[in-house]
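Worked example

This section walks through a single chain of length 75. The input is the sequence exactly as stored; nothing has been trimmed or padded.
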Amino acid sequence: MTERVRCCVPFCRRTIAAEKLKPWNEWICGKHWSAVPKIERREYSWTKRRIPNSDATSVQWERLKAVAIEAAAGI
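Given that input, the structure is written out below as tokens.
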């Protein structure tokens, strides 16, 4: 059986195959990703393309996770 990775949002039951995520080990499912404002998603994508594997990308990812979790909690 293949290894599965859960969505970063607590209590979300959605998963994805670990092979599809390489080299990453975290994931936000489509339902919660769409809850993140579009401008922040675009900014993250731009940074990821232009400056891969940087601290800026890591900081933005943590912010996106926090926004997705807050949106799921209704905060």
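What to look for: The first strand starts at residue 4 and ends at 6.
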